[in-house]
Write a structure and sequence with these properties.
Blueprint (H helix, E strand, L loop, with lengths): L9 H10 L3 E2 L1 H8 L4 H18 L9 E2 H8 L3 H14 L8
Helix pairs in contact: 1-5
Amino acid sequence: MGCTLALPKAEIALKIYCDYPAEIGNQQIKELFGIKASSTVARIKKEIKEIQEERNIKTWSKSAINTKLAYETWGLEIKELEIILRKKQKLGFAEEGTP
């Protein structure tokens, strides 16, 4: 990845993954990484779209990116995130209403 992204909270990453299993857009990327600048989101999406093209992965919306590929590219492993969230819940650190 060309830009450095903040590590997202496990709760947010899992919620977005579960709520948008096929594809994500600008709003989800902003929420996931706490990004405000649209130019940063565009740069992130461009990198994922290039990989999608190489792998011939299509999305329903031209402005969206494939969720599974994006998470894979960003190194966000669902099983790992679930373990982190369970541990946080067990220790009482998880936010209310998290998956």
